[in-house]
UniProtKB/TrEMBL annotation:
Name of the protein this chain belongs to: Orotidine 5'-phosphate decarboxylase
UniProt keyword Ligase present: no
Catalytic machinery residues: K93 (proton donor)
Gene3D superfamilies according to UniProt: Aldolase class I (3.20.20.70)
Enzyme Commission number(s) of this protein: 4.1.1.23
Species whose genome carries this gene: Reichenbachiella ulvae
Gene name as annotated: pyrF
Length: 269
């Protein structure tokens, strides 16, 4: 998917919501456990209930890998079920020496037709570039993460700048704002002004709204750009809003609340 197509979806749906699909057999409603593929059945109903409100879906690959071969089947069915105009993110946090990264990229971009994959920047340019060789596919590089431990390394000062700034300034040379995005946690909105000085045009994938307590308005105040520039993710706050038979309906209600706030923000661009 191109950046123009993504922005078109944002304008059409008045939304920059990314729904996380971290589907856990221990958390999904009991009545689904008797179905042939409970994970896919859950995802299918969540997608049906939110696809007019979301511009992106983000399965976290850990939840599928942990189930072994069965999990990969559920993931593949899920990715094939998501309407093609909706941006898809394999939240896999991959990256390795070049020839290995190339195979990670093939797994997510060719075997499964994801639009993007999250990549850890720690191994540097040759670990990231193989993902950038795929046309109309995206790398989403970890920038400032939402977790507490993110500060162990990401804010260490070197040459008068925090490490995450070095990562962004250097890595943006490897691709363009048409094939790279960055993860910036909603729990750290205070860094967004500085981040926008380094990467004014790139889209940011922002997890941490909802269960982690991040604030949508704060993120948008400092993080939006002329093409919106944000994909705001909420996972548990939406998909586990209820674990009863009404789970899809409740998920829709939560997604609708966020989309309603986003509509006002999109109109202000
Ligand atoms: O910095 C990061 C990077 C990735 N994540 C992932 O996003 C979702 C957040 O889920 P919630 O339930 O909305 O908290 C999850 O898959 C994380 O692994 C992140 O939270 N922070």
């Amino acid at each position: 998917m191109t950046r123009a197509q993504l922005f078109e979806q944002i304008q059409k749906k008045q939304s920059f919501l990314c729904v996380g699909l971290d589907t856990d057999l221990n958390k999904i409603p009991a009545h689904l456990l008797d179905t042939e593929d409970p994970v896919f059945e859950f995802n299918k109903q969540i997608i049906d209930a939110t696809k007019d409100l979301a511009v992106a879906y983000k399965p976290n690959i850990a939840f599928y890998e942990a189930m072994g071969a069965e999990g990969w089947v559920s993931l593949e069915k899920t990715i094939n079920y998501i309407p093609k105009e909706i941006f898809t993110i394999a939240d896999a946090k991959r990256g390795d020496i070049g020839n290995t990264s190339k195979l990670y990229a093939r797994a997510f971009f060719e075997k499964m037709d994801f639009d993007s994959v999250t990549v850890a920047p720690y191994m540097g340019s040759d670990s990231v570039k193989p993902f950038l060789d795929f046309k109309e596919k995206w790398v989403i590089l970890l920038g400032v993460t939402s977790n507490e431990g993110g500060k162990d390394f990401q804010f260490l000062q070197a040459d008068g700048k925090p490490l995450y700034q070095h990562v962004m300034a250097k890595s943006k040379e490897w691709g363009t704002a048409d094939n790279m995005m960055y993860v910036v946690g909603a729990t750290r909105p205070e860094y967004l002004s500085d981040i926008r000085k380094t990467i004014p045009d790139h889209f940011l994938l922002v997890p941490g709204v909802g269960a982690q307590g991040g604030d949508l308005q704060e993120v948008c105040k400092y993080g939006m750009n002329a093409e919106c520039g944000l994909l705001i993710n909420s996972t548990r706050g939406i998909i586990y809003a209820s674990n009863g038979e009404d789970f899809a309906e409740k998920a829709r209600e939560e997604a609708k609340k966020l989309q309603g706030e986003m509509a006002t923000l999109v109109q202000s661009i």
